[in-house]
Amino acid sequence: MKNVLLVAGLLFAIFGNAQIKLPRLISDGVVLQRDEKIKIWGWASPNEKVEMSLKGKKYSTTADQNGDWDIQLKPQKAGGPYTITFKGNNEVSVKDVLFGDVWLGAGQSNMVTPMERVKEKYPDEVANADYPEIRNFFIPTLSNVDGPQKDLPAGEWKPAVAGDIMQMGAVTFFFAKDLYNKYHVPIGIINSSVGGTPIESWVSEDGFKEFPKDLATIQRNKDESYSSQFTTRPPSSNVQPEIKDEGLTGPLKWYENEYQPKGWNNYYIPGYWEDQGLRDLNGVVWFRRELEIPDELVGVEAKLFMGRIVDADEVYVNGTKIGNITYQYPPRRYTVPEGVLKKGKNLIVVRVTNSGGKGGFVPDKNYELTANGISVDLKGEWQYKVGEVFKPFRGARRGGGYNQFWAQNQPTALYNAMVAPLTNMTVKGMLWYQGESNTGRPKAYADYLPALIKDWREKFNKPNAPFLWVQLANFQDVNYLPTESNWAELRFSQFKTLSVPNTAMAVIIDLGEWNDIHPLNKEGVGKRLALGALKLAYGEDIVYSGPIFKSSEIQGDKIVLHFDSVGSGLVSNDGEPLHRFEIAGQDQEFVWADAQIVGNTVEVTSDEVPRPAYVRYAWADNPRGANLYNKEGLPASPFQNFDNEELNQLPWQGKKAAVILTYDDALNVHLDNVVPLLDSLNLKGTFYVSTFSEAFRNRLNDWKRITWNGHELANHTIFHPCIGKESRPWVKPDYDMATYTVQRMVDEIKINNTLLEALDGKKERTFAYTCGDFTVNGDDFFIDGLKDDLVAARAVRSEMHTIDQVDLFNMDSYAIVDATGDEMIDMVKQAVETNSLLIFLFHGVGGEHSMNVSLPAHKQLLEYLKEHDTEVWTAPLIDVAKNVKTYQSKTKTN
Ligand SMILES: [Zn+2]
Fold it and tell me: Does the pTM exceed 0.85?
């Protein structure tokens, strides 16, 4: 409320002397939605009468006490141009008004990317664009964490004609062009997008009802005393206050013609300097090359293409600076002015600054000097010299860390400033191209995207508005083995959002570039979005999507996949066998699969997986070679036939019981006897480690290596303290928990977490009470101080529990001493009968500990578990704990 008043007050201060004021959007050249009831709105002085006239018709209304007014218009036919005039105490008119279809486009940089950026790829479009009835309104970048704003400070409608088209978003231009060419009605695009921003920035506060953490952040950010201590500057603007670059500080600068190079080394362009002998160097590196040029280039204006450069560059030709770019993403296309290129030797010098990651020249890009149809290749041998080395950056200090509050990445910040002012406008539908900035938390995206859709439909008062988004493109290095991928996870979250009604997804898994997060093929993206619009918004009976996975059935040794959007049939688009299908058994260990199109299905098998359960397709950052299409030429969306998030909603992931194999005290036999057997059966164990253990300290690399196969390293304290008793003569006085303080116990467990993280890189950890003891110092419980550091804790009591009975910080287990295989299998059967969790606790396996189980008995148990993996879920304790957590939190809220 404070902000509404503030805005109203501000408006009053500027325009308040009885003046009608219109929102920025309602300005010359505006496109208004045809064929639907729409609203024209604005401000005036309180209670002022406002008259509007359009097409010879008069409308009138009165501003309310805050000066707000609006006028409803009946559905209008497509057409124009018209003039709308408004009369109160003043008179305002809006010229060149068209009625047509208005689309809101939003997202990150790929939605911003203007035609200017892709002009080399689409020279004809740029030179000959003549679509005065396609109009673009680009929303200026603004953020606000206080609350929704009423209007924009700037912005105007621009037609898609030569010149103005340069600033129009390329995706939205090609989208609009297809619609315009089909229907010949005006198309208005409102483009509200900011590069590098997460989806949370674009959702309104109301849209976060189901997200308590974000709501807390929003409230906190509204407190100015909190938010004012942070910078609002993008983290990338890493200002170097003082020039220390030797290339600029000497008597002759390194780009000058008179400079005599000394101590330069060879370098091959393209490529990153970390790959050419400059280890981990952040700083300034200079590159130079002398070259002879053909006579035709002498003296003329030429184009210099330097591909892409990470991060910033300045380019000099014969001592003249011809351009610079300050960040890595734009293509380097410089103009060498007339008169600079000379006969004989020419000198090109490039100064490159890089502050993090690999620096240098991006491969597979264009490096050439060209004019009049003649081209000189600039790839190949250059020389380099280091000008400056940046000291390692000390993060988290005031004044320059990366974790700072950056307003535009805060929840609601962009919604408030860049979407809220638009919501009175009636739109035909919405386009969304975003997700790159959410790949760090890809699963959460499956909650955020539906939340955004619901939110915007409500705010724009169009509950069923067509909503179309672009799935993330293929990007980054190609994996030639099945692999996990956050990009694939995010694409799957986008895929799952198709369950929201009246939505469509443009799949572009074939339009990306491995080395460019901003792929150039924007025409393909726009066209595929337009197909979705034709179907959802214009009711055309067309195939608008590639194959979308619908369901799967397991038939013996194969999995049969069914699809929607098959169109006129499934094909391999390159005529090769289907690629990029993966298959796995219950263990979700994926291998490449053989996949064949059979009618409208795909059948997937592998000799390595006789009893398959899971399939996934195109599951990688860059699944090059994914070739399942429909005959309409549209690619299948990447998918998997399961969803671990959903599986975790079911008790024991949908199986009858869960079994956890835990092994305590870090013994040699665990590495030598247990892990090889587990690996041969593809089962995973949990190893409770006290880091003081000799077998642990002596064989760190072996313990590290077992985590690569999915085994869990878990926390059993550093020193294995226990409460000293007569029956435990081996408890050393120094490590008698009866003498510990809570703080000491908590600290030693936390330190052990840190040690284990150093081995396996994991931040989530489970714990096992040493000797099953819960207390220190007589009777003080210590686990409460650890609940932020641990996911679960295992005790030692011989009990089984159903999933709703499990106490995560007091999980029971059966300590096994000399049990036979049959006895242990009977316990598993009992767990299956009672739908319970059974935790085995082993120490010695084939020796090395007084609490021992024989190798044959242990093997018999594991083989039984493997054979019964369709009804028994055998998993590490941490995975089971997550299942329990998800299941219990869901049943509690319901
Ligand atoms: Zn122990």
Answer: no
